[in-house]
Amino acid sequence: MNVKDFTIEKYHKGLLNKEFTVASFIEEIFNLIESEDSRLGAYLSLMKISALDEAKKADEVLAIRGADVLNSQPMFAVPMAIKDNILIKGHRATAGSKLLENYIASYDATVIRKLKSAGAIFLGKTNMDEFAMGSSTENSAYQKTRNPYDLERVPGGSSGGSAVAVAGHMALGSLGTDTGGSIRQPASLCGAVGLKPTYGAVSRFGAIALASSLDQIGPFAKTVKDVATIFKTISGIDKNDGTSQDIKYGEDLINPDFEKIKKLKIGIPKEYFNLEGMDEVTKQGINSVIDFYKKSGFEVKEVSLPNTKYALSCYYIILPAEASSNLARFDGIRYAKVGPSTPLGVNEIRSNAKNLLDLYVKNKTQGFGDEPKRRIILGTYVLSSGYYDAYYSKAQKVRSLVKKDFTDAFKEVDVILTPVSPTVAFKIGEKSADPLAMYLSDIFTIPVNLAGLPGISIPVKGINGLPVGFQLIGKSFREADILGLGQYYEKND
Ligand code: GLN
């Protein structure tokens, strides 16, 4: 058995046919992690002992219930990697920051609780840009994560570790968070499938918040069907997240009715294709997908999203504003295990601090990296009494316009098809000194978060070299449309 060949679907078939045991599969994955991850840097911490223990238990359940448990629980025994800003009780959750280096989660995030009761097995926590701020995972305080297609290139971000865990075959599925593109963009750059669900589709309880009006948790996997399977497991209303909604997703999420899917109208926003700085392979790749749908008989028409050009500026006011407020709780005292050997030297700082304010300043100065600092400063500025109206209020109005663009377009079409990233994976270091260039990586993904819509990144087929992803954007809570259309593309040539 070569774990590299497996999707979740195929893994379950293998278990059903008794081709291997759960324990042997999970052991093989850890062997692969041991040999590959020193180069790829996807994982920040591993959960080998508990994973192997769970695997043994799963084999025992299989021995008794066999096919029954595999058929009724599609996530049973599925090895998953989890972004390090999602809490698993008893394990570290650093959010890629030194400030949380010693933080051990005291409860499970709702998505983790759901995956646990569905039988999934957690392999470890994955690297990310500090507090999910970034598009390359270079802002992690711990390590670089490398693109499996070219080790000199970034995997995208901020959920770079989760994308590489899947693309590097070191997990069958993973979770990330997407506030402005952090699932879709790394999925695109690494050749994985990544879904940002509708705002409210998945509970964010137990995810370390970045910008609460934009954040969503979502899955990565190797196929659209696998992504649908994970999404169905983690979605649903939760009393611990007041924004979560009670949507009853049907079986068609995973097994679409292609007759219905073929009736969906696809919109192509004209503003997304004349962007300066978009590379040729991306353009060609996206055009090949448009051609595919046209040739398959889908109705494809041009739509307009005229306020897209303001989305990035709007996002970079709203996000820092919310982030500055969310990150205020990280003072280096709470969520930090204070001890003599803490990397921040909390005790030394404590004994040297002149007063409480001085302690806060010292902790935050040492604990936060450049990007969080930049955004906290920006955020407090745009929220300050003198500038609130000029920046924050105005950005909220622009956000309504961006949303309205989509509402209007969705009167004419059911799904919108766009690029995910203007370029393929860039070189490590290429954009890290230029925050503006980095921010542009998310030009096609950010409007979707501003509007709260579901979006998925799917690898374009037939690309030699670095992967290109295309994005399908759906109406609110119509994940079934984009997942169905995605599966149609995957299945047909
Ligand atoms: N790259 C974007 C940013 O830096 C998106 C982040 C995200 O989705 N978490 O804000």
Question: How would you characterize this protein structure?
Answer:
It is a single chain. The chain has an eleven-stranded mixed beta sheet with strand order 1-3-2-4-6-5-10-11-9-7-8, sandwiched between helices. Helix 8 runs antiparallel to helix 18 (479-491) and helix 11 crosses helix 15 (388-412). The chain is globular and about 65 Å long. The protein has a domain at 3-261 and 475-492: Amidase signature (AS) enzymes (Alpha-Beta Complex). The protein has 18 helices and eleven strands. The mean pLDDT is 95. With 493 residues, the chain is of the alpha/beta class. The site of glutamine has 14 residues, from strand 4.
Write the layout of secondary structure elements.
Elements: H1 8-16, H2 22-40, E1 43-46, H3 48-65, H4 67-72, E2 79-83, H5 110-117, E3 121-126, H6 160-167, E4 173-178, H7 184-190, E5 193-196, E6 216-221, H8 224-234, H9 258-261, E7 265-269, H10 280-295, E8 299-303, H11 308-326, H12 346-352, H13 356-367, H14 370-383, H15 388-412, E9 415-419, H16 435-439, H17 446-451, E10 455-459, E11 469-474, H18 479-491
Parallel strand pairs: 2-3, 2-4, 7-8, 7-9
Antiparallel strand pairs: 1-3, 4-6, 5-6, 5-10, 9-11, 10-11
Helix pairs in contact: 2-3, 8-18, 11-14, 11-15
Bound molecules: glutamine (GLN).
